[in-house]
Amino acid sequence: MKSRRTFLLGGAAALPLAALQGAPARFASRLKMMNDGVLPLNFLSWNPALPPPEFPPLPPTVAIRVRTTFPYQNRDVLETLVYLGPPDTPGVILAPLSQFHLQVDDVKITASGGNSIAFSGVIIDNPIRSPFGMIVGKPCVIGGAFDHTGSSTEFEFFGGLIVGSHATMLPVAHGSLEIATPWNSF
């Protein structure tokens, strides 16, 4: 007989997007975001109880990049893809390193002290396994500051924390942010 913990973790691992097909979207119709930036390794921190990830030295023509997209498949799901690509060309994927999906339970957008956005929820799947081990079922917050909405948005200190695993921060990312309703409606 499975323990409750094994059952819950197994359920979370099996939950991926198929289970969300019938879930109503609260945020996906009102908010669209995509950004991409270079991840300097000194902007990466992990749980000291875990073994450190091993990253081979990269040639100057290759960088670790992170792309974040919301919504994913028109659901309240945020996708994060970590990949190797040219440092000056977003979207050119030489090799994927990790990918996960966050079931977004809440979005906060504020203009006090500067524009910022945050998504929170639980990791529901990890199709390209994280170098930081099992992350499915872990709480997660992803967000950062942004200069303005539109098709040429600059995001600053955009990153995330997967509780008990690791934190990642992009000093700068570029992309787009469209908000269809008043910010305080989230």
Question: What's the gist of this structure?
Answer:
The chain has helices at 4-14, 16-20, and strands at residues 31-38, 44-46, 63-70, 77-85, 95-110, 116-128, 139-146, 150-162, 166-179. With 186 residues, it is mainly beta. Strands 1-3-4-5-6-7-8-9 form an eight-stranded antiparallel barrel.
Please tag this protein with its features:
single chain, 2 helices, disordered N terminus, mainly beta
If you had to describe this structure to a student in words, what would you say it looks like?
The chain is built from two helices and nine strands; from the N terminus they run ααβββββββββ. The radius of gyration is 17 Å and the shape is globular. Helices cover 9% and strands 49% of the residues. It has one domain. The chain has 186 residues and is mostly beta strands. Strand 3 and strand 4 form a beta hairpin. An eight-stranded antiparallel β-barrel has the order 1-3-4-5-6-7-8-9.
Give the percentage of residues in beta strands. Answer: over 45%
SSE-based structural type: mainly beta
Average pLDDT, rounded to a whole number, is 87
How many helices does DSSP assign?
Answer: 2
Instruction: Please give the share of residues in helix.
Output: under 10%
The helix-strand sequence is HHEEEEEEEEE
CA radius of gyration is 17 Å
Task: Indicate the overall shape.
Answer: globular
Number of structurally distinct domains: 1
Distance between the termini: 42 Å
Q: Main β-sheet, in a few words?
A: 8 strands, antiparallel, barrel
Low-pLDDT parts are 1-14
DSSP summary, beta strand count: 9
User: Order of strands across the biggest sheet?
Assistant: 1-3-4-5-6-7-8-9
